[in-house]
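Saturday, quiet lab. Running sequence design on the structure tokens for the scaffold JK sent over.
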């Protein structure tokens, strides 16, 4: 039998939900959370149905759930349209003239669309799709910068029942080609280009390259963003603005079955071939809507900013669908956080009075590295709530976020979820949950999360194991597109009836969840199974360290040795004595068992484009092998070459 994952780094700091926040919060105390959570687990269908009734249904559902494991159907018999829920229903209220989207482009151009304006643009573009013979059920690739038209294209697809698959604008022609082939898409919506660090990303050129040879694509609709010189293929390519001349703004929302597919999103895949995660209409909307409502506790006066690109699931659930279904104002920013200077985010917060900020630990660590002076230049007092997603947040990065960005007054919601889960699964509720730096805290309503051992038995407090979800939830993936077998095998085969997340975790004495990283990354050192995130957090707690990635390499004595790749803060010099100091630092913080056998300084770490460290590649480098396998999601290819050469 394999041993459980061991945990050594015990975080003792606790931050109570601020009283001022709790006073107005939807869930104002831990006691209220507990009561609702218990109810939601005892009668999940009752809980989800109550939430679903807050949305607009064109026909009521007959049954809340049909569960033929591992295949779920939610709100069977119900008909609805997501774009109607995100747009039309706000038009009969004061929200009609409220900003739905506030957008800033990287060059500094700005646009605001009210709900009325956004509704009109979505209807017109939906008619453009129809005019171009795109029908219900057809797959449409959206390959765009983070501009309002990306959201308009998504909502227009949803309006007519076409299935969108957004491909992140940083991906290459090959990635687009693979996704077209896998999804069998008939159309691409793109732009001539987008801005990134002052340069133009040649989006249309990448699409052209992806469409050479056999393809299922019949139509490419091009939005003019950069006015760069591009090729337009006669008979295949049309301009967005030209097409609008032929349509009116009258486009009723199609009444779709609850289980009608909404989108396919290919996972960033830090390992293996990308999977097309399929989400459907009713359940997904209920999940995105209700988590946004409770976790961000949005008010009408909020300016809510989720910094994710629309190409990731976070961009789907928490830039577009969740906030708009709640009638919120969602801010979108097109470009890089350090353009033209590393204070771009703080300037945006000051300029627009952003009150809720949702970003990623990788971004937070970059800000720490760039230095506090950039933050101090700006007034951030409009912020009232902070959030993170994407990776475990190192307690030191959490503290920095809390103090430097949140001014010590804003709760932080560390939200754990996945592309597959569609919506937040484990997270504090800001008025109810006391937070601990580094913990995603407690499960959301209706989510039966547990940590289990190799036999599938739930483990006791502070024992590490596998994180599973023991029952279906509305926003869960329905399948891997075109591959039911892989869906079953990957997520549902290990423990009967439970969804396998692939993450390792432990729960502490308060029932709080601590995610220790992907199971595949767990180390086995002299018979002890160690999660990577604790060792990394110990390193990041050293004053000179900006970021760290820990991997194992084969070791004759111990089974695996610990190798730490470390990037230092700006203006810190690398030296052999600093390496020694860092090894000791880990030893004192966690224990000799976790002491790195080797510390390597690196200029940068290999990351996926969504900011996750690609430990698989580091493992190969650490064991002296050449890097093999899929590197298409790698952000900066030069990083690999530099790391393999051992340059510092
Ligand atoms: C994986 C899912 C969900 C949106 C972005 C990522 C890791 C995500 C947290 C968190 C610790 C986290 C997990 C998970 N992860 N959020 N708050 N704490 N780990 O979506 O690309 O599908 O990645 O990201 O390992 O399994 P994704």
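Result came back. Writing it out in full:
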């Amino acid at each position: 039998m394999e041993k459980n994952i061991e945990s050594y780094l015990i975080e003792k700091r606790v931050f109570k939900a601020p009283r001022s926040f709790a006073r107005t919060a939807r869930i104002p105390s831990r006691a209220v959370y507990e009561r609702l959570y218990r109810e939601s687990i005892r009668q999940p269908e009752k809980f989800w149905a109550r939430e679903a009734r807050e949305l607009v249904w064109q026909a009521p559902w007959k049954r809340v759930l049909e569960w033929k494991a591992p295949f779920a159907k939610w709100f069977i018999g119900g008909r609805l349209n997501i774009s109607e829920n995100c747009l039309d229903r706000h038009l009969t209220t004061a929200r009609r003239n409220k900003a739905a989207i506030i957008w800033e482009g990287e060059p500094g151009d700005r646009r605001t669309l009210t709900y009325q304006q956004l509704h009109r643009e979505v209807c017109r573009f939906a008619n453009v799709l129809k005019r171009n013979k795109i029908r219900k059920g057809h797959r449409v690739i959206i390959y765009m910068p983070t501009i309002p038209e990306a959201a308009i294209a998504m909502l227009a697809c949803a309006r007519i029942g076409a299935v969108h698959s957004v491909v992140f604008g940083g991906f290459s022609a090959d990635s687009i080609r693979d996704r077209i082939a896998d999804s069998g898409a008939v159309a691409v919506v793109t732009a001539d280009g987008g801005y990134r660090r002052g340069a133009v990303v040649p989006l249309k050129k990448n699409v052209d390259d992806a469409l050479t040879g056999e393809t299922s694509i019949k139509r490419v609709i091009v939005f003019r963003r950069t006015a760069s010189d591009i090729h337009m293929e006669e008979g295949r390519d049309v301009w967005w603005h030209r097409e609008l001349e032929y349509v009116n703004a009258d486009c009723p929302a199609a009444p779709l079955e609850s289980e009608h597919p909404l989108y396919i999103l290919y996972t960033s895949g830090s390992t293996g071939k990308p999977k097309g995660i399929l989400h459907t209409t009713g359940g997904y909307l209920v999940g995105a809507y209700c988590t946004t409502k409770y976790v961000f506790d949005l008010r009408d006066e909020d300016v809510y900013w989720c910094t994710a690109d629309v190409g990731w699931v976070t961009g789907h659930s928490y830039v577009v669908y969740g906030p708009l279904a709640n009638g919120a104002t969602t801010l979108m920013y097109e470009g890089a956080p350090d353009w033209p200077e590393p204070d771009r985010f703080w300037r945006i917060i000051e300029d627009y009075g952003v009150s809720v900020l949702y970003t990623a630990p990788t971004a937070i660590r970059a800000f720490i590295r760039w230095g506090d002076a950039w933050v101090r230049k700006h007034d951030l007092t409009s912020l009232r709530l902070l959030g993170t997603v994407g990776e475990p947040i190192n307690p030191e990065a959490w503290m920095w976020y809390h103090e430097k960005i949140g001014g010590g007054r804003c709760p932080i919601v560390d939200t754990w979820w996945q592309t597959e889960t569609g919506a937040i699964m484990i997270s504090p509720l800001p008025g109810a949950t006391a937070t601990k730096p580094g913990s995603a805290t407690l499960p959301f309503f209706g989510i039966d999360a547990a940590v289990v051992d190799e036999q599938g038995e739930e483990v006791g407090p502070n024992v590490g194991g596998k994180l599973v979800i023991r029952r279906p939830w509305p926003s869960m993936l329905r399948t891997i597109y075109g591959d039911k077998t892989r869906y079953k095998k990957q997520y549902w085969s290990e423990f009967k009836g439970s969804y396998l997340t692939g993450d390792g975790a432990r729960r502490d004495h308060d029932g709080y969840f601590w995610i220790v990283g992907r199971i595949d990354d767990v180390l086995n050192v002299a018979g002890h199974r160690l999660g990577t995130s604790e060792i990394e957090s110990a390193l990041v707690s050293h004053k000179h360290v900006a970021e760290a990635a820990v991997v194992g390499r084969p070791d004759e004595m111990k089974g695996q040795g610990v190798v730490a790749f470390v990037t230092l803060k700006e203006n810190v010099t690398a030296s052999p004595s600093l390496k020694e100091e860092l090894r000791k630092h880990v030893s004192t913080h966690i224990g000799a068992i976790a002491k790195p056998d080797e510390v390597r300084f690196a200029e940068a770490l290999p990351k996926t484009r969504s900011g996750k460290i690609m430990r698989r590649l580091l493992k190969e480098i650490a064991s002296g092998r050449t890097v093999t396998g899929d590197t298409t999601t790698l952000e900066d290819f030069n990083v690999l070459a530099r790391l393999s050469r051992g340059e510092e």
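Notes for JK: The mean pLDDT is 93. The chain has three domains: 19-81+264-516, 109-254, 522-644. Ask whether to fix the surface positions before the next round.
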